[in-house]
């Protein structure tokens, strides 16, 4: 089994959004921001090549947006998903499965291309997967979260992308199981990848950056903060005990880390590249 990071571009967000109620005097020491309080983030997907299957986890933002939205969101190189795959020796047509941790725009919209006003699958031979709970939630989300969903793209994926809905925790493929976490958004589906020697966990927005590891350092995007804290605390305790490798989707500066317990709660043990 090969695990290969795939680059899908960069974007940015306000530091207050990334760290919620944590004062800037604290979080800015852990994650840099510019003079406008803007933090730079990465869109880091993960390709799992098991030989028989080539499974891509998340797919970035894509190129569906107005110039104003691209400017406000700090888009850079967001058309580089297929290029990054090619650099690693893969073609989009080879991807057998695309696993969406959830359906927010920065995690799934890159699976669809816009060509001459028409939508087209980026991975035409792939089965696309997301949780049933997240799919249903995307249709009824509240006014705050609703802007994170693009119904036209999601409906196209459902109709044309052989979208399969996962109902609860399960083994999705041999060696790859998924668990549901609801604090960020209901039915966020987190992949656990067991290589036989180590377990890698794709963090998505459960823990977007290594700087978000402290329990109360939550992003303001989490719909249910108390649930998110409880889920994160349980997960990090397990991750420390079992020495999981955390793979960060959005951390520009840290690709992977392990964690350990301390008197102050869970902390980073080691940082490294995959």
Describe this structure in words.
This protein is α/β, with parallel strands linked by helices and 274 residues long. The chain has one domain (2-272): Metallo-beta-lactamase, Chain A (4-Layer Sandwich). It has helices at residues 15-19, 24-30, 67-73, 81-87, 105-108, 132-140, 151-160, 225-242; strands at residues 2-14, 38-49, 54-57, 97-99, 112-115, 118-121, 127-131, 163-166, 170-173, 176-181, 188-194, 199-202, 245-247, 256-260, 267-272. The strands form 3 sheets. It has a 7-stranded mixed β-sheet. The radius of gyration is 18 Å and the shape is globular. The protein starts with a strand and ends with a strand.
What is the CATH fold-level name? Metallo-beta-lactamase, Chain A
Secondary structure tally, helices: 8
Helix content: 10-25%
CATH superfamily: Ribonuclease Z/Hydroxyacylglutathione hydrolase-like
Shape: globular
Any idea what the radius of gyration is?
18 Å
CATH architecture assignment: 4-Layer Sandwich
């Amino acid at each position: 089994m090969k695990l290969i990071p795939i680059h899908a571009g960069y974007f940015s967000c306000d530091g207050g959004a990334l760290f919620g109620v944590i004062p800037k005097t604290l979080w800015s020491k852990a994650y840099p921001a510019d003079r406008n309080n803007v933090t730079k983030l990465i869109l880091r997907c993960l390709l799992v090549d098991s030989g028989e299957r080539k499974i891509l986890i998340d797919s970035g933002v894509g190129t569906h947006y107005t110039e104003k939205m691209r400017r406000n969101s700090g888009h850079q190189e967001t058309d580089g998903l297929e290029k990054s795959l090619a650099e690693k020796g893969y073609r989009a047509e080879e991807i057998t499965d695309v696993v969406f941790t959830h359906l927010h725009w920065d995690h799934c919209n890159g699976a669809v291309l816009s060509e001459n006003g028409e939508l087209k699958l980026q991975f035409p031979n792939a089965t696309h997967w997301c949780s049933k709970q997240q799919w249903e939630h995307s249709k009824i989300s509240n006014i705050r979260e609703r802007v994170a969903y693009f119904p036209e793209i999601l409906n196209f994926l459902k109709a044309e992308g052989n979208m399969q809905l996962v109902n609860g925790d399960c083994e999705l493929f041999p060696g790859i199981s998924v668990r549901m976490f609801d604090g960020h958004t209901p039915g966020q589906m987190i992949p656990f990848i067991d290589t036989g020697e180590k377990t890698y966990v794709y963090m998505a927005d459960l823990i977007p950056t290594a700087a978000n590891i402290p329990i109360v350092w939550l992003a303001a995007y989490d719909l249910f903060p108390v649930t998110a804290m409880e889920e994160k605390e349980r997960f990090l305790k397990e991750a420390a005990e079992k020495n999981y490798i955390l793979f960060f989707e959005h951390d520009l500066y840290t690709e992977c880390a392990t964690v350990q317990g301390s008197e102050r709660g869970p902390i980073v043990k080691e940082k490294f590249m995959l």
